[in-house]
Specification:
By secondary structure, this protein is α+β, with helices and mostly antiparallel strands. The chain has 2 domains: about 130 residues, Diaminopimelate Epimerase, Chain A, domain 1 (Roll), CATH 3.10.310.10; about 120 residues, Roll (Diaminopimelate Epimerase, Chain A, domain 1). The protein is built from 6 helices and 18 strands. The chain has an 18-stranded mixed beta sheet that branches. The protein starts with a strand and ends with a strand.
């Protein structure tokens, strides 16, 4: 069996920026264990697989795998899959409808941006021990702690987020996934995302984290249109909108390579 594999840098307009994702179109689903093994071999934060849907309400079914686990939602790999469909596989419709573990995802194009319609996951405040989290994050001052799918920790400012030096061994003992965030200097908010429990100490750019970040900052800042940066070494940029129970995330992508997997 031979499979085509693409690699795309998502949420960036520069090669070697943003978040790289492996994209593998399938004619039919492979065994889950095999897809997980391929994701481990690729050793990227996400490998995305999709097949044509038999449901008339969806165009494709889509699944995402880190090197260690399958996850229920991934933004950058969805953007990468849409980029491949629009630019390499000649998908003609203006909108792609993906069916996934988190429901229906809609993706379209707006000039050089790919626009994704995702669920809005408003995080709720938690009364937990901030001192322990501060220790995990290298002694930073914590403003507040929240959670929906992932733990969201608000810090004082952009510089604190940028300089934060977590203890990943300690984090992995207690926390699966964590977002840190603060107001931005030249954007509305900044963030970083850690997922040692999924085999990723720090993810370069994380669309699914913005399903929590967008409603959080929209309420806090009193505005629905937001500009965001993820402050990893590779860096990533998103244009965001809060729309009721949905969020819109817009980003660019750059093609890196095309190859073939032999199984």
């Amino acid at each position: 069996m031979k499979l085509t594999i693409y690699q795309v840098d998502a949420f960036t307009d520069k090669l070697f920026g943003g978040n790289p994702a492996a994209v593998i179109p399938l004619d039919e689903w492979l065994d889950t264990t095999l897809m997980q093994t391929i994701a481990l071999e690729n050793n990227l934060s996400e490998t995305v697989f999709f097949v044509k849907s038999a449901n008339a309400n969806h165009d494709f079914e889509i699944r995402w795998f880190t090197p260690e686990v399958e996850i229920n939602l991934c933004g950058h790999a969805t953007l990468a899959a849409a980029f491949v469909l629009f630019n390499m596989l000649d998908f003609k419709n203006p909108e792609i409808r993906f069916s996934c573990l988190s429901g229906l995802l809609k993706v379209n194009r707006e000039d050089d941006l790919i626009c994704m319609d995702f669920p809005s996951w408003k995080p709720e405040r938690l009364d937990i021990y901030a001192d322990e989290l501060s220790t995990i994050l290298g002694g930073v001052e914590i403003v507040g702690v929240y959670k929906h799918r992932d733990l969201l920790v608000e810090l004082m400012n952009e510089d604190v987020v940028k300089k934060c030096d977590p203890d990943f061994s300690l984090m992995k003992k207690y926390i699966d996934k964590m977002i840190i965030t603060a107001p931005g200097k030249n954007v509305d908010f900044v963030s970083r995302f850690f997922a040692p429990g999924a085999g990723i100490d720090e993810d370069p750019v994380t669309g699914s984290a913005h399903s929590q970040l967008i409603p959080f900052w929209a309420e806090k800042l009193g505005k629905n249109d937001l500009h965001a940066l993820q402050l990893s070494k590779r860096g990533g940029e998103l244009w965001c909108e809060q729309k009721g129970d949905r969020v819109i995330m817009k980003g660019k992508a750059v093609f890196y390579m095309k190859g073939e997997i032999t199984l």
